[in-house]
Write a structure and sequence with these properties.
Elements: H1 5-36, H2 47-57
Organism: Enterococcus saccharolyticus subsp. saccharolyticus ATCC 43076
Protein name: DNA-directed RNA polymerase subunit beta
Transmembrane segments: 12-36
Length: 59
């Protein structure tokens, strides 16, 4: 089964938009935590930080 060229182009466009949105989300996390907050930008990916945040919602 062949995928037509139009479908392939559309799929690449959709995947690039999703990838770009995920990339911008992580950049926003780093700016928010490191630039606006008092932490290091790379500490936003620390597992303990996210566990601490999730503990507030799982009271």
């Amino acid at each position: 089964m062949e995928i037509s060229e139009d479908i392939l182009k559309t799929l690449i466009k959709i995947l690039s938009i999703v990838f770009g949105a995920i990339l911008l989300f992580f950049i926003g996390l780093m700016i928010g935590y490191g630039g606006i907050g008092d932490g290091s930008p790379f500490l936003v990916f620390n597992r303990e930080l996210w566990q601490h945040i999730l503990d507030f919602f799982n009271i």
